[in-house]
Design goal:
3-stranded parallel sheet, elongated, Protein Binding, DinI Protein, Chain A, mainly alpha, 69% helix
C-alpha cells in the first residue's frame, strides 16, 4: 500500500516559467517591438523636454511610461495566455493537478518545463 502523501507528491508539478516565456516563439518579436517603442518614446522625450518645465517633463515622462506599460501588456499578455493554456494541457496530460513556479519548489514534484517548451513550439 502506498501512502497518500506519495500520491499527492506525484500530482504536483512545476514549470520554469521564465525559461518558457523567454523561449516562446513569439517572445523575440514582442521584445523587438517593445524595444522599438522604447526608442520612439525616448526620442519623443528628447524632442519635447527642452520646451517643458520640470513639471511638464515629469508629466511627459509619466505619460510615456504609461504608454510603454500598456504596450508591454499588449505584446506579452497574449504570450502568457498561450503559455498558461499549454501548461494546463500538459499538466492534464501528465496527470498533474497542481502546477507551481519552479522557484517555489525545494524538492520533489514533476518538472513539466521541457514538455511545455515542446508544446509551445520552443527551440
Amino acid at each position: 500500500m502506498v501512502p497518500a502523501t506519495a500520491y499527492a507528491a506525484e500530482s504536483i508539478g512545476y514549470v520554469d516559467y521564465g525559461r518558457v516565456f523567454s523561449r516562446h516563439p513569439d517572445f523575440a518579436s514582442a521584445r523587438a517591438a517593445l524595444n522599438l517603442e522604447q526608442q520612439k518614446a525616448q526620442q519623443e522625450f528628447r524632442e519635447k523636454a527642452p520646451n517643458l518645465d520640470d513639471n511638464g517633463k515629469r508629466a511627459l515622462e509619466n505619460q510615456l511610461m504609461e504608454r510603454m506599460a500598456k504596450r508591454e501588456r499588449e505584446l506579452f499578455d497574449p504570450i502568457e495566455e498561450k503559455i498558461l493554456k499549454v501548461v494546463r494541457q500538459v499538466s492534464k496530460d501528465r496527470g498533474v493537478t497542481i502546477v507551481l513556479q519552479r522557484s517555489a519548489v525545494i524538492e520533489g514534484g514533476v518538472d513539466l518545463t521541457n514538455d511545455v517548451l515542446k508544446a509551445c513550439g520552443s527551440k
